[in-house]
């Protein structure tokens, strides 16, 4: 009921997976049935048991491995979505904050421009006042 795993036409990686699976099935049933001891012995000799019971147990093992991989994959996809949304939210907040700061900067610049205009106007008015004062002083001297 056992054949060499090299006669299955599998790659070295596939053979190692099969051997590991057969050993895992045997370890799970350790101290159990004669077939589990036979599977463990066959696996250590580079053989694969081909009876329906051994193949069925190996199939169930790989089904559990695939289910575990699928669950881990789903978890990682959820985590990556969470991270993506978090980064997107933070980026959106940064953009909103940057927009608010840019608007604030424009308001400050407008206030500066307005103050500069007021400063120029006041400077002109000051010159006019100086002129009036000089004329007033001249008139006062004349009188």
Explain briefly what this protein structure is.
One of its GO terms (biological process) is endosome organization. The protein is mainly alpha-helical and 143 residues long.
Care to describe what's here?
The protein is mainly α and 143 residues long. The chain has three helices and two strands, in the order βααβα. It has helices spanning 12-28, 34-44, 52-142; strands at 2-4, 47-49. Strands 1-2 form a two-stranded antiparallel sheet. Helix 1 (12-28) runs antiparallel to helix 2 (34-44) and helix 1 (12-28) crosses helix 3 (52-142). The chain is rod-shaped. The termini are far apart. 9% of the residues are buried. The mean pLDDT is 87.
Cα-based radius of gyration, to the nearest Å: 44 Å
In percent, how helical is the residue content?
A: over 70%
Record field, number of beta strands:
2
Q: Approximately what portion of the residues adopt beta-strand conformation?
A: under 5%
Order of helices and strands: EHHEH
Report the total helices: 3
Shape: rod-shaped
What structural class do helix, strand and pairing data support?
Answer: mainly alpha
Largest sheet: 2 strands, antiparallel
Low-confidence stretches: none
The residue-averaged pLDDT reads 87
**Strand ordering within the main sheet:** 1-2
Distance between the termini: 138 Å
Family: Belongs to the BLOC1S4 family.
Function: Component of the biogenesis of lysosome-related organelles complex-1 (BLOC-1), a complex that is involved in endosomal cargo sorting.
Protein name: Biogenesis of lysosome-related organelles complex 1 subunit CNL1
InterPro entries: CNL1
């Amino acid at each position: 009921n056992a054949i060499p795993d090299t006669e299955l036409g599998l790659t070295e990686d596939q053979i190692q997976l099969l051997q590991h699976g057969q050993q895992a099935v045997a370890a799970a049933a350790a101290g159990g049935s004669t077939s589990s001891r036979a599977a463990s012995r066959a696996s250590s000799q580079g053989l694969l048991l081909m009876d329906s019971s051994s193949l069925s147990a190996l199939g169930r093992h790989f089904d559990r491995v695939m289910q575990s991989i699928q669950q881990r994959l789903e978890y990682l996809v959820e985590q990556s979505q969470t991270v993506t949304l978090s980064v997107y939210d933070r980026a959106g907040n940064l953009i909103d904050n940057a927009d608010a700061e840019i608007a604030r900067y424009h308001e400050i610049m407008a206030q500066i421009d307005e103050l500069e205009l007021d400063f120029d106007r006041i400077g002109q008015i000051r010159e006019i006042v100086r002129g009036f004062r000089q004329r007033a002083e001249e008139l006062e001297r004349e009188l």
